[in-house]
């Protein structure tokens, strides 16, 4: 039997890994935006995601993985750690490599992979999810958060020695099939990733961070 969840006053000790494609090639499904606007929005999503993660109780560090030098500088200004992406064609391999760095630099921390397209993620909801997934990891299990559609994945966590993410097409089913426990189903902001303009409209309606608000020319409702 797994140990009971820790008291609410004791946050987990997590390192959140945020992989980010260079904004110039990211978010290609945001059809209808000009290339400069798409780049700005992709960068804003990543900045808001990382900033919210850094503000979340229980997060010891945010490790951003990117080959974009300008974005890396902006991430460092937010207090994030940055490492280059040595396997940029394979997201899962990128995450495994990053988690090896997490184990080296933050031994004992729970490694958590978080997608970079969550511009409205709220620290209070992310903190709740991290407590839940850290409990599973402490019991030797992996855990994942499905996206709003229920087919993709926005967050994955596992013990370092068993860290085996399955991001890609139908990733929720793939994570579930690999034995990962579904978590965070009530955490709407952690599940609301943005792939296309319909997703963007939904995120703007729910509220987004300051970078996305500026990139969307004031059409967004900033988070309070």
Protein architecture, described:
The chain has eight helices and seven strands. The protein has helices at residues 35-54, 69-77, 91-105, 123-138, 171-177, 188-191, 197-206, 210-215, and strands spanning 14-19, 59-65, 81-83, 110-114, 143-146, 153-157, 181-182. Strands 3-2-1-4-6-5-7 form a seven-stranded mixed sheet, sandwiched between helices. It has one domain (14-215): Spore Coat Polysaccharide Biosynthesis Protein SpsA, Chain A (Alpha-Beta Complex). Helix 2 (69-77) links the parallel strand 2 and strand 3 (81-83). It has 224 residues and is an alpha/beta fold.
Notable characteristics:
globular, single chain, 224 residues, 8 helices, alpha/beta, Spore Coat Polysaccharide Biosynthesis Protein SpsA, Chain A, seven-stranded mixed sheet
Q: Specify the CATH architecture.
A: Alpha-Beta Complex
> Helical percent range?
25-40%
Q: How many strand elements?
A: 7
Structural class: alpha/beta
- Count of all domains: 1
Q: Give the percentage of residues in beta strands.
A: 5-15%
CATH topology: Spore Coat Polysaccharide Biosynthesis Protein SpsA, Chain A
| Terminal-residue CA separation | 40 Å
The CATH homologous superfamily name equals Spore Coat Polysaccharide Biosynthesis Protein SpsA, Chain A
Q: What top-tier CATH class fits best?
A: Alpha Beta
Strand order of the largest sheet: 3-2-1-4-6-5-7
Q: pLDDT under 50 segments (min length 5)?
A: none
């Amino acid at each position: 039997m797994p140990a009971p969840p820790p008291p609410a006053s004791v946050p987990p000790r997590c390192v959140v890994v945020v992989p980010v494609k260079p904004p110039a090639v990211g978010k290609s499904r945001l059809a209808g935006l000009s290339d400069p606007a798409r780049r700005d929005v992709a960068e804003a999503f990543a900045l808001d995601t990382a900033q919210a993660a850094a503000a979340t109780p229980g997060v010891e560090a945010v490790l951003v993985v990117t080959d974009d030098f300008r974005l890396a500088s902006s991430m460092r200004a937010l207090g994030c750690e940055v490492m280059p992406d040595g396997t940029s064609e394979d997201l899962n391999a990128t995450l495994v490599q990053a988690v090896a760095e997490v184990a080296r630099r933050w031994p004992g921390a729970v490694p958590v992979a978080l997608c970079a397209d969550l511009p409205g993620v709220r620290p209070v909801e992310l903190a709740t999810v991290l407590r839940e997934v850290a409990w599973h990891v402490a019991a030797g299990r992996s855990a994942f958060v499905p996206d709003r559609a229920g087919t993709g994945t926005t967050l994955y966590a596992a013990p370092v020695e068993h860290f085996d993410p399955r991001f890609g097409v139908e990733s929720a089913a793939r994570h579930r099939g690999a034995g990962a426990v579904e978590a965070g189903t009530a955490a709407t902001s952690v599940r609301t990733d943005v792939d296309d303009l319909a997703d963007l409209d939904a995120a703007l309606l729910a509220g987004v961070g300051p970078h996305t608000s500026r990139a969307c020319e004031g059409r967004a409702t900033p988070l309070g």
